[in-house]
């Protein structure tokens, strides 16, 4: 099973685009908040136990998915440059070990749009950041806008593209890449 990794800052629309892509393609969605929400039920954010549980869940899902022969898995992630590069390399290794591919899509929009979106009610369904002040703190602390280097990321501006249009762009890009690979 191949992995489609959608990454970008909080409120860039990763989960919304992932759901639209799933509807369009039938791909399964494993968004990062699933492991975070479960870990938060048991441990305080940022503790060793929290990090270990969240990472163990993700790693196991990736391992089992990568062994699968058919289909694609969509994973959403808030990438902080450059500190998350080793984590991305670990994910890639888990999939390539089984001959699977990883496709990178960076979802971005203007900071003003992020700050407006962060307080939308849909974000309360999961334990997502919901305050502009908290988002500003995170943006000032981490580089969430630099593309993951060497990963062949396809950039999509979710400020000008709807979730459905973003999903269509991703789906077409994956089909093109697969077609190109088959024609080699």
Task: Report the uncertain regions.
Answer: none
**The CATH homology group name:** P-loop containing nucleotide triphosphate hydrolases
Q: What's the average pLDDT?
A: 90
Radius of gyration: 16 Å
CATH architecture classification? 3-Layer(aba) Sandwich
Quantity of strands, as a count? 5
Count of domain modules: 1
Helix content percent band: 40-55%
| Cα shape | globular
What's a quick, concise take on this entry?
By secondary structure, the protein is α/β, with parallel strands linked by helices. It has seven helices and five strands; from the N terminus they run βαβααβαβααβα. The chain has one domain: Rossmann fold, CATH 3.40.50.
Task: Kindly describe this structure.
The protein is an alpha/beta fold and 184 residues long. It has one domain (2-182): P-loop containing nucleotide triphosphate hydrolases (Rossmann fold, 3-Layer(aba) Sandwich), CATH 3.40.50. It contains seven helices and five strands; from the N terminus they run βαβααβαβααβα. It has helices at residues 14-25, 32-42, 48-67, 85-96, 111-117, 132-141, 163-182, and strands spanning 2-7, 28-31, 72-77, 102-108, 154-157. Strands 2-3-1-4-5 form a five-stranded parallel β-sheet, with helices on both faces. The chain is globular. The model has no long low-confidence stretch (mean pLDDT 90).
Summary keywords:
184 residues; alpha/beta; Rossmann fold; 5-stranded parallel sheet; 5 strands; globular
How does the SSE layout of this entry go?
Layout: E1 2-7, H1 14-25, E2 28-31, H2 32-42, H3 48-67, E3 72-77, H4 85-96, E4 102-108, H5 111-117, H6 132-141, E5 154-157, H7 163-182
Parallel strand pairs: 1-3, 1-4, 2-3, 4-5
Helix pairs in contact: 1-7, 2-3, 3-4
């Amino acid at each position: 099973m191949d992995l489609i990794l959608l990454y970008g800052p909080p409120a860039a629309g990763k989960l919304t685009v992932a759901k639209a892509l799933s509807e369009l393609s039938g791909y399964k969605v494993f968004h990062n908040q699933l492991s975070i929400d479960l870990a938060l039920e048991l441990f305080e954010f940022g503790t060793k136990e929290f990090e270990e549980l969240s990472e163990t869940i993700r790693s196991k899902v990736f391992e089992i998915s990568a062994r699968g022969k058919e289909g694609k898995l969509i994973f959403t992630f808030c990438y902080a440059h450059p500190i998350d590069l080793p984590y991305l390399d670990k994910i890639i290794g888990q999939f390539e070990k089984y001959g699977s591919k990883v496709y990178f899509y960076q979802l971005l929009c203007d900071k003003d749009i992020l700050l407006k979106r962060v307080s939308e009610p849909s974000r309360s369904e999961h334990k997502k950041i919901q305050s502009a002040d908290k988002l500003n703190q995170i943006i000032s602390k981490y580089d969430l806008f630099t593309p993951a280097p060497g990963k062949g990321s396809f950039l999509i501006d979710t400020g000008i593209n709807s979730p459905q249009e973003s999903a269509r762009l991703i789906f077409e890009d994956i089909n093109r890449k697969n077609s190109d690979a088959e024609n080699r």
